[in-house]
Amino acid sequence: MSPEKLLAARTGRESVYLPSNRLGLYLALRHWCTPGQRLLMSPISADEILFLVLAAGLVPVIAPISVLDGNIELARVTLSAVDAVLTTNLYGLPDEVMAMAGVVVIEDVAHAAETSVGGRPLGTFGAAGVFSLSKHAGAGSGGVLVVESAADRRALERERDLLLQPGALRRDLLTVATSVGRRLALKLDMARPAIRLARALGLQEPREGYRIALRPDELREALSSPLGLPALDAWVRADLHDYRCSRGAVARWYQGRRLERLPADRARRLAGVARLAELPTVAEGVLHHVDQPLFRVPLLVADRDGAVAALERRGIPTGYLYHPPYDDYAEPFVEPSTAPEAARWWARHVLPVDPLYAERALQVVESLLPAPPPPGDRLLDRAAAA
Ligand SMILES: Cc1ncc(COP(=O)(O)O)c(C=O)c1O
């Protein structure tokens, strides 16, 4: 079955097939928001997400985050001061989507393809939910956007088609081959050569630390272009240069197959979540969601970068690190958080671990020292000082 049909079945919604999640988020923001509106978002997400928000002409209002799960801390937000919210559902831990009534909500469910809240799948709460096929399903690049009404679906399909660039069979085959290669390398414990190859092939964007270069002057110029999204391609395409190229039958067939096989991994994923949740370093939010097949299990450790290097030596790549928070990374382009310390702490200390490879990772992560207490935790600060 096609990826869009499978996700329509999971969510009970209308679905739109896309070459990437990021294109879907852009389309949803353009469809439900108007340029100049204020969008509340977490500072802890992938680089491209900030740039597509800017491309949509919105003001990124950076939210305080919770040290429990790295998502927006709604208790410290005045929702009436923004027009819309973009959730992240970081590593699969759900945002407080039920408490976001009264504003437009766009759900980024890239990390949360298998997370439910009260038995209802994420992606069905907001005006739109956008899935990424490269995450849980490991199906190469691709995305699916789900919405409530057929009229919205049709309008979004038209808007998508205006932005699509032509695909090529060669490119589809490369996407499938890369995806198969990645999964095999991990399975066969050959991730180190695979990481080196990905870097050599330019499949990973050059980075300054964990973020791509901001190039603020060029960015400002691109934002003043009437072209919209295409003017920001150089930023939005991070790690996925064909993010708006059509995909053909081969890629879609492969993606459907990978999605169909997700339930087969569910028990192993849940076992990994349960095992990692026993560690003293696990983020507290995980303990409330051990029944969810998370994308990654966030640990909060003292020497995160040392742990990333140690894991890589054991053949376990660590991805999905978003450091520093957007308001430190791109300060002139956002409305900064009123309480940035928690995000800085989280971004510095979080170590996301793939629950499917929990046993292998445990050799390294079991002995890691926990992060220092989070900022604002005076009780713990005092205990540490004593
Ligand atoms: C939180 C989050 N959202 C969205 C995306 C973008 O997904 P895609 O690569 O399918 O565009 C990513 C990619 O890493 C991500 O981590």
Please give a structural write-up.
The protein is of the alpha/beta class. It has a domain at 263-385: Aspartate Aminotransferase, domain 1 (Alpha-Beta Complex). It has 15 helices and eleven strands. The strands form three sheets. Strands 1-9-8-5-4-2-3 form a seven-stranded mixed beta sheet, with helices on both faces. Strands 6-7 form a two-stranded antiparallel sheet. α2 packs parallel to α3, α2 (21-32) packs across α4 (150-163) and α5 runs antiparallel to α6 (191-200). The protein is globular. It starts with a helix and ends with a helix. Residues 378-382 have low confidence and may be disordered. The structure holds pyridoxal-5'-phosphate.
What is the total tally of β strands? 11
Residues in helices, as a percent range: 25-40%
Query: Rg, please?
Result: 20 Å
**CATH homologous superfamily name of the domain at 263-385?**
Aspartate Aminotransferase, domain 1
Low-confidence stretches: 378-382
Write the H/E string, N to C. HEHEHEEEEEEEHHHHHHHEHHHEHH
Output the keywords.
386 residues, alpha/beta, Aspartate Aminotransferase, domain 1, 15 helices, binds pyridoxal-5'-phosphate
